[in-house]
Amino acid sequence: MTANSPADKSATKTDVLLIGGGIMSATLGAFLKQLQPDWDISLYERLDRAGLESSDPWNNAGTGHAALCELNYSPAAADGSVDPAKAVGINEQFQVSRQFWSHMVSAGHISNNFINPLPHMSFVWGDAHSEYLRRRYESLSAQPLFKTMEFSEDPAKLAEWAPLIMEGRDPSQRVAASRVVGGTDVDFGALTRELTAYLGANGVNMHFRHEVGGVTRSSTGGWDVKVKDLATGTASTVSARFVFIGGGGGALHLLQASGIPEGKGFGGFPVSGQFLRSTDESIISRHNAKVYGQASVGAPPMSVPHLDTRFVNGQRSLLFGPYGGFSPKFLKTGSYLDLPLSVRPSNLVPMLGVAKDNMSLVKYLVTEVLKTREGKTAALQEFMPTAKTEGWDLITAGQRVQVIKKDPKKGGVLQFGTELITAADGSIGALLGASPGASTATPIMINLLKRAFPRQFDGWEPKIKEMIPGYGVKLNENEQLAAEIEADTNKVLGLS
């Protein structure tokens, strides 16, 4: 590449610069490589390979969010009713992701080794929770995308669905569960590495062990990105027409460094977590489902407890958690100064407002941090009564940085979803937040394409429709098309 200016001989140029080697950058790169193959694309990741932070399955709290079993996506209203709209919306987004993955597999760009069929279950106990789950089932099962959902309060039936949750349980305890057999488990670390391997094999400039230290406006209207090669210590500047900040928790600092008005006022609240991972193959082999329960009062949605079968690099595993924790780091491999260095005059009021209004969250995190190993085992035993401390390893999960944003009434609000931020001229975009995150990477990146490249997008839409047959269609309102797409994607992804 040519030098950017005589003053900086190390500078290079690129059309698109992707910061972070996670599922978001990989998905955006995979789109652009097919939509605009003549563009020069460069990806920078500070770790040794792709998908090692939030996209890694050991760090990721969810591995296939489709709202089939996650109760926080369909809470009860004050009158006890359950609105299916949010759950349907998330499932629609997951269907878009599935279609894109199916396209990538059928085109020979990636393999289907990252996804496995797995039932999704919700499990609760007690009268109030059981009544809620019944109402949720009645609401969701009336929707075409959830029509295969089953519900039962029969202990014998639940023991068939997930024997470990019923063995040793008090027979007088009222329990209830819902199940969708056609759920999936997604190893987003494996998927990310499949996508980045495709990018690297098709002309994308892949730079691992390269840390981005700053993003500033260039005199030409693009962006100058400061990069350090961690292997050699060499610093350079890359000039880019478009920059995507997809560095997970690290995105906030770089968004702030860009100085765009649209990024003003945003803050981040980091939440860490731990899981118990079974080491007993006889236990692992007897559980085959994602079983989600109800979050504790004051707990963030990402801390919903679940007994979770996962396939990591093709190997079956069993996890329970997460247990909440706190660290000021914004990345698992980040700095303890991440949180204090993120405070700005523009986000101080929102952050103080969130601190004032979220004491229940603070109490929850303090309680979790102080919880002993025996206390963690007791929480597991609520799901699996026969569980013992032996046979389970405690592992540290990844960091989640929940979005703090301005609010005219409260000063600031804590948001548990994702926030896509783009400059007015579309030259830079950033993704903040976590859940449902990776599972909805495809629709999130399509939204980014619309906002960042409005002049090109109309010309790209026919190709996008080829990749995603249900693009622009609400599958929940088109049952026949939904069934056709499900059959096709299941066949290509090896799920049927």
UniProtKB/TrEMBL annotation:
Keyword Cytoplasm carried by entry: no
Record-level GO BP terms: tricarboxylic acid cycle
Catalytic activity: (S)-malate + a quinone = a quinol + oxaloacetate
Pfam families named among the record's database cross-references: Mqo (PF06039)
Cofactor: FAD
EC number(s) given by UniProt: 1.1.5.4
Keyword annotations from UniProtKB, A to Z: FAD, Flavoprotein, Oxidoreductase, Tricarboxylic acid cycle
Functional pathway: Carbohydrate metabolism; tricarboxylic acid cycle; oxaloacetate from (S)-malate (quinone route): step 1/1
GO molecular function terms listed in the Swiss-Prot or TrEMBL record: (S)-2-hydroxyglutarate dehydrogenase activity; L-malate dehydrogenase (quinone) activity
Domain of life: Bacteria
Family of the protein in this entry: Belongs to the MQO family.
Name under which the protein is recorded: Probable malate:quinone oxidoreductase
Top-level taxonomy: Bacteria, Bacillati, Actinomycetota, Actinomycetes, Micrococcales
